[in-house]
Specification:
Layout: E1 7-16, E2 19-22, E3 30-34, E4 39-43, H1 50-58, E5 65-70, E6 76-79, H2 91-95, H3 104-114, H4 127-139, E7 145-149, H5 157-169, E8 173-177, H6 181-187, E9 190-195, E10 198-202, H7 209-227, H8 235-240, H9 242-264, H10 280-285, E11 287-298, E12 301-312, E13 316-321, H11 327-334, E14 342-347, E15 353-356, H12 369-374, E16 379-382, E17 385-388, H13 389-395, H14 412-425, E18 430-434, H15 442-454, E19 458-462, H16 466-470, E20 475-479, E21 485-489, H17 492-507, H18 537-564, H19 569-572, H20 574-607
Parallel strand pairs: 4-8, 4-9, 6-7, 7-8, 13-19, 13-20, 15-18, 18-19
Antiparallel strand pairs: 1-2, 1-3, 1-5, 9-10, 11-12, 11-14, 16-17, 20-21
Helix pairs in contact: 3-4, 3-18, 17-18, 18-20
Length: about 600
């Protein structure tokens, strides 16, 4: 028998100015129900009202119609996309605020796992530090319902994987807004689709969303055709051409697979790109960046060990790794912005690049969209061809009427999209993208993938978005923090697969084979090594990560027991005593489960 919902909205409606943003008399009623173990992906275009819906669920915004029902004593916590830290001295000061402020030891325990110093001044904190502090604050409150708005923004891959692992163990419900397709596919079991003022729900995770979306649009189109009332349909999805776009993307993906296969034949076991053709000179003539044995160290630590790579015209290179692993250092050396300590980088004199950075530094708030794109005019040169500004805006999913809108009032996602529209218009043969997916919605990500696929030059991408890399790059440079750089033909999943093959080899006490060593890329012609221990990808990850997690839990349990040893705590602060007792109970349960899981996996590895 299904459990009753922990939160529901019946007949929800919200006006925005003179129009109804959600529900309203001309639309069907909005009924929303969240179960105690729901893992919901909230999908919708920028401006559809996703963050507004969060505020209605949290009850920080009053609806114009509808009835909200919440289970008694339920704790709802919001992980905001851009929390305001201006009133706080340190990240810890920020984390210990809220309606139900968490215990300091709980915050510090989570912060330690995320690798963030909570004593960092809030004023100078980076985007990644602010995001980690917000996560520590939210998770430490032990929510029954967790609302997450773009939780992976500004996080590196290791932090994203940690958050995924935490959410897999989490026993409450969550609703998440995210552009990270891999994150959504791994964690969600149902989808809320906010579209044209109504909310649809389907009990299928994000992996089934696109097929569902296409089915809904196809049914609406058939119904409209029968009624001879196509004009009643919203223009945006008709123009978008869902089915046509999917077919185009399939064609682009097939072309990408062919490019990866060709690129795999150019890589030798030392990580240097070579072309196995009779016309070696023809290969060299196509090279745009040639790095030979480049190195870089800071304060005695090797950030980049001797590394060589030949980048060809048309290559799409992805650079991945944790924060501090050396991604930006490598990118700057490859583009000539930073000199290597040793080795050489040769850059083609014909190379003219465009840099799109994660700070969106070119967006001036007092300028209009017209100013940004066309310096106040009506026409813009797009890759050497003259085009009207409004037509160019439409290509990037904007309403052409925003042409005289000031940049300062645009949303973060709209600013990012505007920057893409501006920079992709410039004629260039090298495109450098530094975390380009932050603040973009799923539609804009699809568009960005299309533009990159059609771009005739070379592309260098630093990103934590795994699905985006898998759909755009032909070659991945993976940094593990040791100074070594893996060169892998393919995307993020190809690099991740190679990493785990290497870890398995080490954990079993055997020397890795030639194709498994650092700096030796996998190729499509190489046979895939067979895992003797038969662990799945998720099992191998648990086997690798659980020992550290068990240690963290033991430390948290010790701190909690020390606090509870105060004989006066129960009488002076019963609420604190209750919170810590509950936290201890949860930590002990999790530790028991983790130990049992690891011992089971270890036994399988040892007996393999």
């Amino acid at each position: 028998m299904a459990q009753p919902p922990i939160l529901s909205w019946e007949g929800l409606g919200l006006q925005q100015g003179s129009r109804w943003l959600l529900g309203g008399p001309e639309r069907e009623n909005i009924d929303l129900h969240v179960g105690p173990r729901d893992r919901l992906a909230l999908i919708g275009r920028n401006g559809a009202g996703k963050t507004t819906l969060f505020r209605l669920i949290e009850n920080s915004l009053e609806a114009d119609q509808g009835i909200r029902k919440v289970k008694a004593n339920m704790r709802i916590v919001v992980l905001e996309q851009d929390p305001d830290l201006s009133a706080h001295e340190t990240l810890l000061d920020f984390a210990l605020t809220g309606e139900n402020p968490p215990e300091e030891y709980e915050v510090e325990a989570i912060a330690g796992q995320l690798g963030i110093d909570m004593a960092t001044p809030a004023k100078g904190a980076s985007g990644g530090e602010r995001r980690r502090a917000a996560i520590a604050r939210a998770l430490a409150q032990d929510p029954d319902l967790l609302l997450m708005d773009e939780p992976t923004n500004h996080l590196d891959l290791s932090a994203i994987e940690w958050l995924e692992s935490w959410l897999e163990r989490y026993t409450g419900a969550f609703v998440v807004i995210s552009h990270d397709r891999t994150f959504l596919k791994r964690l969600t079991n149902a989808t809320l689709w906010l579209d044209r003022g109504i909310i649809r729900r389907k009990d299928v995770g994000f992996g089934g969303y696109e097929a569902w979306e296409e089915q809904v649009y196809a049914e609406e189109a058939r119904a409209a055709a029968k009624m001879d009332a196509k004009l009643k349909l919203e223009a945006h999805w008709l123009e978008r051409g869902v089915t046509a776009r999917r077919k185009r993307n399939q064609g682009r993906l097939e072309a990408l697979w062919k490019m990866r296969a060709a690129r795999a034949t150019m890589i030798d076991t030392s990580g240097t790109a070579k072309l196995k053709l009779t016309a070696e000179e023809d290969f060299k003539s196509k090279s745009v960046i040639v790095a030979k044995d480049i190195t870089k160290s800071y304060e005695g630590r090797a950030v980049i060990k001797p590394f060589s790579l030949r980048i060809q015209r048309g290559d799409r290179i992805g650079i991945v790794g944790s924060n501090g692993a050396g991604k930006t250092t490598l990118l700057k050396m490859l583009t000539g912005e930073l000199e290597p300590d040793s080795g050489t980088v040769e850059i083609s004199r014909k190379l003219s690049g465009v840099m799109i950075d994660q700070q969106r530094s070119l967006m001036e708030p007092d300028k209009t969209v017209r100013d940004i794109l066309a310096e106040g005019g009506d026409w813009i040169d797009v890759q050497g061809n003259r085009k009207h500004v409004q037509a160019h805006l439409k290509d990037f999913l904007f309403d052409p009427k925003i042409i005289d809108t000031k940049v300062g009032i645009l949303s973060g996602g709209e600013k990012s999209r505007l920057l893409l529209a501006r920079e992709f218009a410039a004629k260039s043969n090298l495109l450098v993208l530094d975390e380009p997916t932050n603040d973009l919605d799923l539609e804009t990500l699809d568009l960005l993938q299309e533009v990159i696929a059609d771009y005739e030059g070379t592309v260098l991408i630093v990103s934590h978005d795994r699905d985006f890399l898998d759909k755009t790059v032909t070659l991945t440079l993976g940094l593990d923090g040791s100074g070594s750089v893996d060169v892998v033909a393919g995307g993020y999943e190809d690099w991740e697969r190679k990493r785990h093959i290497h870890v398995v080899g080490k954990s079993r006490g055997s020397k890795p084979k030639a194709e498994e060593t650092v700096n030796s890329p996998a190729t499509e012609t190489a046979p895939a090594p067979v895992r003797a221990d038969k662990l799945t990808f998720k099992e191998q990850r648990d086997y690798d990560l659980l020992p550290a997690r068990i240690e963290e839990l033991e430390s948290a349990i010790s701190r909690g027991e020390e606090i509870l040893s105060d004989p006066d705590l129960f009488t002076t602060n019963p609420q604190k005593f209750a919170n810590i007792s509950k936290g201890l109970e949860n930590a002990r349960t999790e530790k028991d489960v983790a130990e049992e899981r690891w011992l089971e996996l270890a036994e399988r590895v040892e007996t393999a």
